[in-house]
Design goal:
Blueprint (H helix, E strand, L loop, with lengths): L6 E4 L2 H21 L1 H5 L4 H20 L1 E4 L3 H16 L3 H5 L2 H29 L4 H5 L2 H4 L2 H14 L5 H30 L29 H27 L6 H18 L6 H20 L4 H6 L1 H26 L4 H15 L2 H15 L3 H27 L12
Parallel strand pairs: 1-2
Helix pairs in contact: 1-3, 1-13, 3-13, 4-11, 4-12, 4-13, 6-15, 6-18, 9-10, 10-15, 10-16, 10-17, 11-12, 11-13, 15-16, 16-17, 16-18, 17-18
Length: 413
């Protein structure tokens, strides 16, 4: 029995992964069966994990039985995911974006800071630790469930109780609210300013950088997969070395952040020495790691605890939507020239600023179908949203949490 007097079922790492994979397939089936879930683009992992967490809750309430899941594999998956993000960070791609991309990146930094300030203000007003405000701010809204749960694990390790509960609640609210807000706001901007694309809707299609790629017959070869594993493993090892040197110098970094930094170093050194990395297995590996990490992290969340903080989570959503839409319309839209491309870019910005990159791309795709294509907007959002935003978010969050005001003690909560 555990401390609560319940019968305890302890699952090992392999059992946890098996349940996680099954939950992913169940989440995929449920998402396809319920149109609303597909529309708001809630990840399969979130749906599947919620079902598992619900079953655990039923076991606790009605059968006096609790379940604990393995956590060691989850930590490795987290490193793999953030390494894959770092490996996609091509500095020359950012430099080639020109002034519009520079503006987009600058405004992204502004919204990251403003979201955290809004979250911190609510946390302090509610009487909670200010670190919860950063977790429920940019880490959940720009970062999404993966980033929120990664930082929640780090904060709990430092002594911030219930960080995972806040992370899963805030990031889930973010996904739903972002998907519901991004499209209507973009349409309102286009209609208000009487904007339209240069081509008629559906005359030109642009589905992002992957659209023009032809099938690769060697995509699943053992050699390519092993090469991807080698690059990821080497980057993770380099991240460990960065962490060790940082600790020696008095700089404490979360393991996943140093893994992402290592990925950035590896991919740009490869470019410098004209060594071509095969990104298909790296991207697939990162995607698999993210899905498995999300479902293993989220399915252990005590749902009853999330329900207890539903009011501050709802207030936080209102604050984050207000500040993000305000920055998008009054700053980004105007700095980009207030034309049609600027409006569509705002749609993508709201997508990844309030929910995720899939929401961003889906929002722009729907706008393009209705009002006309905007390849420029797709390019800008792809460059900024694919990796810059994750790098900026990590460093800004770390900057906030490093301030004395955010110091965590073991009794915080």
């Amino acid at each position: 029995m555990n401390d609560l007097g319940m019968w305890q079922i302890e699952l090992g790492e392999l059992q946890t992964i098996i349940i996680a994979i099954i939950a992913l397939f169940i989440g995929r089936w449920v998402r396809r069966s319920v149109p609303f879930l597909s529309k708001v683009d809630i990840p399969n992992a979130v749906i599947g994990a919620a079902i598992v967490a619900g079953l655990v809750l039923i076991g606790q309430v009605y059968f006096n039985t609790d379940v604990s899941f393995g956590s060691k594999t989850k930590d490795v998956l987290l490193l793999v995911f953030f390494t894959s993000i770092g490996l996609s960070a091509k500095l020359h791609a950012l430099l080639s974006g020109g002034k519009p991309l520079l503006i987009l990146c600058l405004v992204t930094v502004i919204v990251l800071v403003v979201q955290n300030l809004g979250g911190v203000a609510l946390s302090v007003a509610w009487g909670a630790h200010p670190a919860f405000g950063v977790l429920a701010g940019s880490l959940s809204f720009v970062g999404g469930p993966g980033t929120a749960m990664a930082w929640a694990s780090q904060l709990e390790a430092e002594g911030l109780a219930n960080a995972a509960i806040v992370g899963v609640g805030a990031s889930t609210f973010a996904i739903v609210s972002g998907a519901l807000v991004a499209g209507p706001v973009t349409g309102w901007i286009i209609r208000r300013h009487n904007l339209h694309g240069q081509d008629k809707p559906n005359d030109v299609t642009f589905a992002g950088p992957q659209a023009s790629k032809t099938p690769d017959p060697d995509a699943g070869s053992i050699e390519r997969l092993l090469a991807g594993v080698l690059v990821i493993a080497t980057s993770v090892y380099l991240g460990d070395m960065i962490n060790a040197y940082g600790a020696f110098a008095g700089i404490v970094l979360p393991g996943f952040l140093s893994a992402m930094i290592a990925g950035v170093i590896v991919t740009n050194l490869a470019d410098l020495f004209r060594f071509r990395l095969d990104f298909l297995p790296i991207e697939k590996g990162g995607a698999v790691a993210l899905q498995l990490f999300l479902v293993t992290a989220l399915m252990a969340t005590p749902l009853i605890s999330v329900a207890q903080i539903i009011v501050p989570l709802a207030l936080n959503v209102v604050i984050q939507i207000a500040v993000t839409v305000g920055v998008a319309y009054f700053v980004l839209f105007r700095m980009l020239g207030r034309d049609y491309d600027a409006a569509v870019t705002v749609g993508g910005f709201l997508g990844f600023g309030l929910a995720s990159m899939p929401v961003a791309m889906g929002t722009m795709d729907e706008v393009a179908k209705r009002y006309g294509p905007s390849p420029k907007a797709f390019l800008l959002i792809t460059l900024a949203g694919s990796f810059f935003v994750d790098l900026a978010n990590a460093f800004i969050a770390k900057g906030f949490l490093s301030l004395p005001f955010f110091a965590i003690t073991p009794v915080a909560g």
